[in-house]
Amino acid sequence: MDFQIIRRVFKSPAVLSIIIFLSVMGPGIITANVDNDAGGITTYSLAGAQFGYNLLWTFIPMIIALAVIQEMGVRMGVVSGKGLADLIREKVGIKFTFLMMIALLLANFGNVLAEFSGIAVSSGIFNVPKFIALPVAAFFVWLLVVKGSYKSVEKVFLAASAIYLTYIVAGYLAHPDWGLAIKSVLVPQISLDPTYITMVIGLVGTTIAPWMMFYIQSSVVEKGISLKNLKYSKADAIIGAVIVNIVAFFIVLACAATIFTNGIQVNNVADVSNALAPLAGQYASILFAFGFLNASLFAASILPLSTAYYVCESLGFEAGVSKGFKEAPVFHGLYLGLIVLAVIIIMLPNVPLLSILYLSQVANGMLLPFVLILMLLIINDRNIMGEHVNSKLFNLIAIATVVIVMSLSIGLVLTALF
Q1: May I ask the CATH class of domain 29-180+195-417?
Q2: Which end of the chain is more exposed for a tag (fewer CB within 10 A), N or C?
Q3: Helix 210-223 crosses helix 353-379 at what angle (to 10 degrees)?
């Protein structure tokens, strides 16, 4: 977009800023909202159903950490004009990058499986057989990227992001104990129980996932945001981080106020949706189920896309939504392959859908520190970032996130062994 024309037409600085922000808006809000995917909603639901209000305190540090990490990704993309995988390859070499991409590919495929299992679960809530829902959903997400440009795809993703507001309504309809909720936010209740630690890792892994660092940077680069509009892109990233955690907060709140309070055992999101109906009303149940379907479809489009981006960038292949199959055959082939393989696996009988959804988030949490360390090495390199290197505060927050997640992961392993 030609911002010089906009500046001549709109003289008011405030109006001008809003228009430029709306033009730049997208990567941060979309990336953050996809964090609330099928696996994420399952994890938040189980957190509320199993631990009540006790884990609400985690959202304060997660908002801060996610805002900083998303801002770092945006800044790296705008300043360098390159994706994160591309920068990692240049920083540490092709061999290490290749091994890391294999690990991320496997973890992300688990996430893709989680999204399509989410579609299977949510279609079951609405009495649609998964043998119909999955192929239709797969065709839809494939067609969206193959036939659309970056701008058209981004508009669809932004519309999907708005639907997440249904969870805030569902949380309100659950009539939570606001006093207890506020107390749980301000006064952390920490436990060394392995199930508690696993849940915290899952919450961190779904809120700050490794794939999102690659996607947000790649989408900023493909959108072509210039350095002079960096501040608007930063605002997009920070607003996205706040919104996604508010939505997640209300998911935990809804399940804590209803399922946990009434001592109901749930095994999957369908159980959660069904349990909400008599406790919070039919509308809360329908909104919860519809929000889950939207989240699953949304993330089923984004996660294979993120994987295709970072694999192609790391190996030097052409990548981009606006590029056709002839221009980027590996990119489009990988995107299609991930979708088809995920659908085939999820359609097999007796697939443990809940385990796939939950464990994919735990895997995210365990991989997160390694990606963050590489990001810190790159963003503090003045040869790449120039004057836009990290401040001491941002480094402190990012390093604290690495230390906390690694400590949780080590603690989980030790408690499992001893």
Answers
A1: mainly alpha
A2: C
A3: 60
